[in-house]
Amino acid sequence: MVLHWRASGSADEGLAMIEQAMNTYQRLNTPPVFWPLLLYLQAGACRLASRPADGLTLIDEAIEIGAQASGKTLMSEFFQVKGDLLLALSSDTAAEAESWYQRALDTAAEVEAPMLQLRAAIRLSRLWGDRGETASACELLRGAYETFSEGFTTPDLREARSLLDAGGDELRQSAG
Fold first, then answer.
1. pTM for the predicted model, two decimal places
2. Which one of 89, 152, 155, 174 has the minimum C-beta count within 10 Å?
3. How many Å apart are CA 111 and CA 134, to the nearest integer?
4. 143: left (phi > 0), else alpha (psi -120 to 50), else beta?
5. Phi, psi (rounded to 5 degrees) for 13
6. In the chain, what are the domain boundaries?
7. CATH of the domain spanning 1-112
8. 155: which residues sit within 8 A by CB, 6+ positions away?
9. What are 27-82's pLDDT values in tens digits?
């Protein structure tokens, strides 16, 4: 749904629909187990709608709730979105975004989630490539990529392969 309304240029309409759905969910008489995930999705939609400050508020709430839960699997995704929102907010926040991407990478490794590790490695690699640290960027990305033995047609693996094939050139051009 997010990509559809973004592609049609009606970001405000899409965010209004998400907010309406969030309000409906809050009125349900069920445990709010999906609330952090919904906040994460809404924060990502805010990034796509060029409203990173709004997204940061939402993802901070998702991280706070998620930190109190017993499962850590989604935390890597939350940390990645936090880094994305920080970069969308200002290029001055690159160091802070990098620390969130590193947390995402470490958390994904802790819960043994290779695809989440790859996603975090892609983000870190792009950031490092933008700073001219292409050797480190490629090394990190190659390490995450080489853990896979199948699924090479998935978007994340195709993106990683493309970055590695470009030998760092694309990393320098596509960061941020």
1. 0.86
2. 155
3. 27
4. alpha
5. -65, -45
6. 1-112, 114-176
7. 1.25.40.10
8. none
9. 888 777 888 999 999 999 999 999 999 999 999 999 999 998 777 889 999 999 99
